[in-house]
Design a protein that fits this description.
alpha+beta, Glucose Permease (Domain IIA), 2 domains, 14 strands
């Protein structure tokens, strides 16, 4: 039997409880307008931290999206920051209404975690990828293909949460972290991949196929 779970990220409980407690206080004080506003804010915070289950594709060669949101960039570059290879860089932008729990794109071992403090420019700009707070997870597949995915804080986001650690073995679709209040995730993928998404496409973490590695890789 599948165990029941509350579809809310644990990191969100302090924010949700604070919003509900504040709403209760103003309601007891009969401040109707503020109580209604508090209910709206509580609902938005609860919506932001929702953590629904996802149907993970079974194809062993597919990479899935690490985040809910919209694809805003697909380019070929040489990455000298995470994997030191020619890669596809794919960026997924999350607005405040998207699910913000992030998921692992592919099975593999974590080679390293690269965190950098920074600023908080709008996450849908190139400047954000260079200067914003970010946390990169570098992984290697069983066939020794290296890839990375990078959580980037946004204009409103003030904390990146990453549960992955060096040496961990992660599964495709497994939750590995979240970013609070608006953000972006960049993928650095091998250029021998067959890409299956397009700029402007909406994607779901752990569910939407980003691309396929050749079976012979």
């Amino acid at each position: 039997m599948k165990e029941a779970r509350i579809p809310v990220a644990g990191e969100g409980y302090p924010f949700i409880l604070f919003a509900l407690f504040t709403t209760l206080i103003v309601a007891v004080l009969q401040m109707k307008f503020l109580a209604i506003a508090g209910l709206v804010v509580s609902g938005l915070v609860l919506n932001f931290f929702r953590d629904p289950d996802r149907i993970i594709p079974e194809d062993p060669d597919c990479f899935v999206s690490p985040a809910d949101g919209k694809v805003i960039k697909i380019v070929k570059i040489f990455d000298d920051k995470f994997v030191n290879e020619h890669v596809y860089k794919i960026s997924v932008f999350m607005n405040i209404f998207n699910v913000h729990v992030n998921r692992t794109p592919f099975d593999g071992k974590v080679l390293g975690i690269k965190y950098a403090p920074g600023k908080f420019f709008s996450a849908n700009t190139d400047r954000a990828a260079l200067e914003n707070e970010q946390c990169g997870v570098i992984m290697e597949t069983a066939n020794q293909q290296t890839f990375a995915f990078v959580q980037i804080a946004g204009l409103v986001a003030r904390r990146i949460v990453c549960w992955a650690e060096k040496g961990d073995t992660l599964r495709r679709g497994q939750r590995f972290g979240l970013i609070r209040f608006g953000s972006r995730v960049d993928l650095y993928l091998p250029q021998n991949m067959q890409i299956e998404v397009a700029i402007g496409q909406k994607v779901k973490a752990g569910e939407t196929v980003i691309g396929y590695l050749p079976s012979s890789s």
